[in-house]
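Lab manual, section 2.4: Encoding a predicted structure.

Procedure: take the sequence of the chain (81 residues), apply the prediction step described in section 2.3, and record the output as structure tokens. A sample record is shown.
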Amino acid sequence: MDAGDHVICVDSNFHPSIVPLYTSLPMKGREYVIRDVRLGITPDCRNGAVSVLLVGVNNPLAKSRSELERGFDERRFRKTD
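Recorded output:
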């Protein structure tokens, strides 16, 4: 996936413990446009994962050394044609 790609959310089942960390979450079945792709950190902080940021879905910065906006695992989305 790349910035500018149109995607549809196929998994919006977020663990309740991470929901308070976000102000906006994607919804299953909705189409989005990717605004950035980068390395993210899984909730257990042990593994890296490809993370996407979405146009129109903005969230607070993580309270960590990176202070990056929290993104979403790319596996939650599928490209649309």
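Check your result against the sample. The mean pLDDT is 88.
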